[in-house]
Records
---
Amino acid sequence: MSGENNSRTDAERALEAVTTIGAALAWFGEPMLGAAMTFAGTGISHLLGRRFQTFVGEIRERLERLEEQGLVSLKTLARDEAFVTDLLTALRLATQTHREEKREALRNGVLNAAMQRCPDEEQRTMFFRMIDELGISHLRVLRFLQDPAGVVSDEQKTAARSDVAGLGPEEFVMNSLPELADRELVSQIILELRNRGLLRPDYPGAGSRASLGMYLKRWTMPFGDRFLDFVTEPAQGAQRAQEGRTDDGQHHAT
């Protein structure tokens, strides 16, 4: 076997070492091991294992695809302590959720970490924690408020012109995201996004009203844009980042 094949084998072996059930249990600690033993034979332990193995397979497939494109090196990643920590963090969180949108965000976070599209280690730690702590609706609202003008339909814009009373901030979101029908929940989501520094502090508060035109701007903070890039598939994230640099200057408004 050639030296090149040997190094390739070593890289694959190292990557596999951090994507095994044993490594996962070592990372999760006794609570996870205890849960697996408690639910052994009930089908729950099988579900936990399936979540883990599915996520591992998806990550490996995408990393191998990126390597074929010359964008990452599995050999280098296998020796990168920070990347291994990011990978293990994502594996732990992916096993704890059944929500596919969260699992997708975690997968994309790992890929962006592998490509060093978010080079700050502390920021990656914060982003993974936010994926865990925020709900799917938080991500949907934040994406919408990053580019509401690109989402609001022409019909909504036409109807709003005759609405002299204006829109409340929750109503604006709910009109474009009909799956969010609870005004109080939307208000809390907006508050939490603002408190985490993801949403601009001048986004209209509860009880206020404004014309539709006042809402059709980018409401995300630069930190919020970076978070959305982190949870977005690398190719799409790069495109959105480019669009953000060529917009009308509202990207960095405060």
---
Amino acid sequence: MEENLTLKRQISTGIILRNKPVLAFYSSRNRTLQNLPQLLRSNTWRRSLIKTLAQILSTTGLYKLLPLSSNGTKLIDCLNSVSNTPVSSCLMTWQGDTQRKRIYGYAYLGDSDKPVFVKYGEGEANANLFQNETDALKVINDGKYQFSTTHLITSKISKEESILVSECLPHTAKNIQPSTFQLPPELLALSTNKREITPSELSRQKWWSEYEKIARKAAPEFYKKTASTLKLTSSITTTTCHGDAGSENIFSADSGLLVIDWERYSSTAPLLTDPVGYWLGINHTLIANSPAIEASRIKQWANLKKYKTSDIIFALSYLISCNFRPAIQIAEKFVKNKA
């Protein structure tokens, strides 16, 4: 059996589902598939892979081995261009939603037995997100905060294609299990970097134009409320934020709290962006089913925390600019709810 799983030099295989490639394994030498457990120590990666395999098992007959697609070849070539050591093997997957033009992978470089995490994307949108994460990874691990993130190894960012190579999560890392709606205090420390800006400065923020584009169509009443709130506001408190501080991106590790996925990082986000995003993330299923009820609940939560309504509105605006679905779903009900 093991002999049958051995991948000969320069042989690449993968799996397609409903005519779309979802998983591929590349090897430039005689590595075997028994290496895969080492690649699957990340909880996030394992969850994605298990979901993929579950889909395959539920659609018997719609999968087969195939040569590595052109998408996978692009990742390998790009990774080789930024690494001093050539790729010896890589397990990768890409989303069925091809609009994002994303590939994720775990790779071995050269003779190393320690895999790296690879994220590849095409286009300007991915370039902007990858630049955000690169900026974050360079500053978060400077010892200032009581949490850490994976270290950036190398990167390449351009409008054509971008790639980030970073450390893998330690195999002992586990997703935190939220017991309250309160953002972990270690992450709350990000909001100590406060800066007051004027409404005109806010409107010049790069994320604001994206918010307006989305909100005009997806949440028109909320958009009007934001505009009227701005007219009554002399200044807006901004701070550093993660931007996607859901529990799926927060891990408990031997070294303490470890936070990943900094694509929505900003040093000029509204004050309550991360606390509101965390609350929405925990309640995302309830919001999808009953947005009006959850709009009332988030107002009650905000009153309990003595948060200003305007700060909640601006935080929702930032999260909408990130296309964060729970924020879009709750926004209209939030401005209509009188609780």
---
Amino acid sequence: MNPDVVADTNAVLWLYFDPSRLSAPARPALHAASTTGRIYISAITMVELVYLEARSGFPYPGAFTRFSTLAADLCEPLKILPVTVQIASAMIQVPRAEIPGNAGPHHRRHGRRARIAARLRRHRHPRIGGIKRTRSRHLVMP
């Protein structure tokens, strides 16, 4: 059996900073991956860490630097997977109800995508050309 795992932001933070917070099923899977396989995280996790570290009270300062350093070390199990157009396209096929934080249309405002979009709108992030709201209330890039 392949010991490789793909970890989300919380799992990788807890693995390296606070292992006691890992769930019972996550502990052995991450341990096996760290000793005989790979622990993959998405590049989006690294983006999320930039925002999290900028917030006051974030309990894991230096996570971005630590994970970047670990991922660059060929002897370390942590590796960063890029987000490609193919991955983004495949996400279209995942039912919204199966995405944590997006249980349905009435929970949309609580989803990660909505939070990131709201943050970008609020700060009018110049590097992406801004975001505008259409009549249908969907966010689009100009």
---
Amino acid sequence: MAPRHPVAASNCDGLYKARDLVEHEIRVICVEPCTSDDSSAESQVIYCHLMHLSLKDENAPKYAALSYTWGSEEQSNSIVLDGHRVYVRENLADALRVLKPKTGEAPLLIWIDALSIDQTNEKDKNRQIKMMRHIFRQAETVHVWIEREFPGSRDAFQFVRDVNLCAKGDLVVFMRGTGREAQLEHLRQFFYKEY
């Protein structure tokens, strides 16, 4: 099956040159939904484009933001951004695969530092980094992505959810519950991982 968009094999050269950002403006990534429910390679391709939004415009579309660990420096995964094949780190590609809207859902508007900021332009980086507090504060949703599931991660995060549901007085009783030692150990391993 041929790609639905023409793809130029390149990196980010020229993607950010079309129009500079104006004051209080950010770039968000519009991630297109899957076109089918199958798991073919074509349906797994992440197609997206850049949009400019003003943080001062109350009528601007709602967007999400992604907070994630960059992970390995190797950029062996690709997405299609404004018709250009752009190579991204594995952890970002994994997050986008999970967040990518399903067939029939609305596109996802999301701010992602590695893509929303022109990483080759120091002026753009400095300006956008100064705005990050506002970017995350004004995001409708902030997605946090650490990495793919790892052994024990379900236990670790179930433990966090369970603790969150406990009333303060019940926490001591909760901690004496069976099976908590294993969950706590998985949580400890999670915090000691090198990211």
